[in-house]
Amino acid sequence: MDKLVVQGGRTLRGEIEVSGAKNSALPALAACLLTSETVHLAGIPDVRDLITMRQLLEHTGATIKPVNGHLEVTTPSIVNPEAPYELVKTMRASSLILGPLVARCGTARVSMPGGCAIGARPIDLHLMGLERLGATIRQEHGYIEASAPQGLRGGRIYFDTITVTGTEDLMMAAVLADGESILENAAREPEVVDLADLLTKMGAEIEGAGTSVIRIRGVKSLRGATHRIIPDRIEAGTYAIAAAITGGDLVISNCRPDHLGALIHKLWQAGVHIQEVGRDSIRATATGAFRSQDMSTEEYPGFPTDLQAQYMALMTQVEGITIIRETIFENRYMHVQELVRMGANIRIDGREAIVAGSRKLTGAPVIASDLRASASLLLAAMAASGETVIDRVYHLDRGYERIEEKLAGVGALVERVS
Ligand code: EPU
Fold first, then answer.
1. Whose CA is nearest to atom 14 of ligand 1?
2. Is it true that 3-19+231-417 and 22-228 share their CATH fold?
3. Are strands 107-111 and 70-74 parallel, antiparallel or unpaired?
4. Neighbours of 174 (CB within 10 A)
5. Model pLDDT, residue 322
6. Is 359 in contact with 345 (CB distance < 8 Å)?
7. Where are the chain's structural domains?
């Protein structure tokens, strides 16, 4: 199992490039199951979750060819409409193939996802939505079976809780349904909009993606398309915080400043200088005088839960008390105990973390527990004095492409050891 060995105290300077968004690439690959024609996808990051998604697609009958940095995905027919437990247990986003499979071939069998480090994370809303579109759902032997032998029909779906992959899954189910579907209280994340853009290129009729009401008029079939995945806003945000926490100055290229509003605002309030450089770069510069800033995670366009752990690492370094409130997942504080082992002063009270800042962090052996917790520990390690060894780096590899190489390119001392 790989570990990262980090020597702290280095200031990051230079330019660092962001990869394609993992959470956009996952539904984009799932969308390829909706057509027998070839879909060309650019900007798919080379990270563990995408490798799992590719395996899942191949299991169902897709052929995937890497050509000049793009992926060519062709699914002449679905031979195996199934997501087996072995793949689902390593990646919950596997449930994203449920909608496309039922839409394309009238049946799907997907292993139920188990618990997960950041919370219970049920998929009841995906199933409710499929039922509203006319599918019959059965749950047996740890699997969910959805069937609509006569095809799905349009319907009105209201989400009690805003769900990102639930919105994506049902959008993909509805594009081939008979008639109009309306998704209400839908997720507004840029990744939902990116998926709608791809589906539209494939011939789908979708209006309102990026707002809380999405209207979809079903079509008979979809065609092939060419699409580039949007840049990863969480990776970009992680690097902006890396610049701040190391007292550095980074130009973060290939990013979408318009997707980073809440983070840029929060960092600006905290005293980090953020400047837009052209249309696709930002420059994050530490000014030296940080202020504590309370933060609450929210659905987009609010502050992303996927940057909460990283933001917390930064707040351990500022004057004063910061209250961080996690509203999306009930248990997304697995990084706290590890940060405390490095010298941070953080107390959990229900959904709130109370961070007493200005603590000197010192390197220590720590264990990564999930993807974003790992990023938080890496940031803390770069700010700490001495050596930190981060164990279970496979969590980081699920979502960050070549992160240690990119950070080393701007001055970090990070090494991967087996
Ligand atoms: N929820 C339900 N029922 C459902 C679906 C969701 O109760 O059927 C609840 C969840 O338990 C949670 C809330 O709704 O409390 C929001 O969950 P959501 O469904 O939006 O999360 P997700 O779609 O499973 C995606 C990202 C996550 C990100 C969340 C929130 C992908 C592949 N994953 O997950 O990304 O944290 O949205 O923004 O898009 C990550 O990249 O590290 C990551 C965890």
1. 163
2. yes
3. unpaired
4. 32
5. 97
6. yes
7. 3-19+231-417, 22-228
Distance CA 311, CA 296 (A): 11
Q: Which two tokens stand for residue 234?
A: 């969480």
In order of 335, 345, 375, the CA distances from 399 in angstroms are 17, 28, 10
CA distance 334 to 370: 8
Task: Give dist(CA 70, CA 95) in Å, integer.
Answer: 24
Known catalytic residue at 116: yes
Report how far residue 125's alpha carbon sits from residue 110's, in angstroms, rounded to the nearest whole number: 15
Is residue 370 within 8 A of residue 334, CB to CB? The reply is yes
Which ligand 1 atom is the nearest neighbour of the CA of 328?
Answer: 15
Q: How many CA atoms lie within 13 A of 6 on its CB side?
A: 36
Query: What's the confidence (pLDDT) of residue 115?
Result: 60
Distance 303 CA to ligand 1 centre (A): 14
CB contact set of 223 (below 8 Å; sequence gap of 6+): 35, 37, 202, 203
216-273 pLDDT, tens per residue? Answer: 999 999 999 999 999 999 999 999 999 999 999 999 999 999 999 999 999 999 999 9
- CB hemisphere CA count around 230 (13 angstroms): 22
Evaluate whether 153 touches 178 at the Cβ level (below 8 Å). yes
The pTM (predicted TM-score) of the whole model is 0.97
The two structure tokens encoding residue 258: 């318009």
Q: What's the sign of the alpha-carbon dihedral 366, 369, 374, 379?
A: negative
* CATH 3.40.50.10960 applies to domain 3-19+231-417: no
- Would you say 191 and 233 are in contact if contact means Cβ atoms under 8 Å apart? no
Please tell me the distance from the alpha carbon of residue 180 to that of residue 174, in angstroms, as a whole number.
8
Cis peptide before 301 (omega within 30 of 0): yes
The pLDDT value recorded for residue 114 is 66
State which of 112, 121, 131 you would mutate to test the pocket of ligand 1, scoring each by most atoms of that ligand within 8 A of its C-beta. 121
Q: Please check the confidence at residue 118 and state whether its pLDDT lies above 80.
A: no
Amino acid at 207: E
Domain 22-228 adopts which CATH fold?
UDP-n-acetylglucosamine1-carboxyvinyl-transferase; Chain (3.65.10)
Question: Which ligand 1 atom is the nearest neighbour of the CA of 120?
Answer: 11
Specify the pairing of strand 249-253 against strand 13-17: parallel
What average pLDDT score do residues 276-288 get? 92
Task: Name the amino acid, one letter, at 6.
Answer: V
Burial of 38 (0-12, 13-18, 19+ CB in 10 A): middle
As a dihedral over the C-alpha atoms of residue 299, residue 332, residue 318, residue 314, rounded to 10 degrees, the angle is: -80
